[in-house]
Specification:
The protein has about 120 residues and is mostly helical. The protein has a domain at about 50-95. The chain has three helices and two strands. It has a two-stranded antiparallel sheet with strand order 1-2. About 15% of the residues are buried.
């Protein structure tokens, strides 16, 4: 994995660097997904794809920092977001499966009538 696969713009790309770059790309581009989903919804929102990209990106970066670089700082800075993304995805998936009927806009508001 440390063998140079190719050189682009003077950067020597190894297998481990591909793992790291993939993780960085996924973790960073999740915000583009979030922005596009919020624009479509007309309000701030976090789609499921955001959490999947967080988990994949953090996992790739964690693998890179554990096996590719053996870097404790990188391990800590990617383990915590991975745990939070897993927890949030768990909450999202379990919340969406509970049959609570129509949701309200907030405390004290009544759901709209269904016709």
């Amino acid at each position: 994995m440390n063998t140079v696969l190719f050189v682009i713009f003077g950067l020597k790309i190894t297998g481990w660097k591909l793992v790291g770059y993939t993780g960085g790309f996924l973790f960073t581009s999740r915000w583009l997904v979030q922005a596009l989903a919020s624009r479509k919804a007309g309000k701030p929102t976090l789609p499921l794809l955001f959490w999947y990209m967080s988990i994949l990106g953090s996992s790739f970066l964690l693998i890179y920092f554990i096996f590719g670089k053996n870097d404790g700082v990188g391990i800590l800075t990617n383990a915590f977001p991975l745990l939070l993304a897993l927890y949030n995805l768990f909450l999202e998936l379990t919340h969406s499966k509970t049959p609570h009927g129509p949701t309200t806009g907030g405390p004290g508001e009544t759901p709209a009538e269904v016709t």
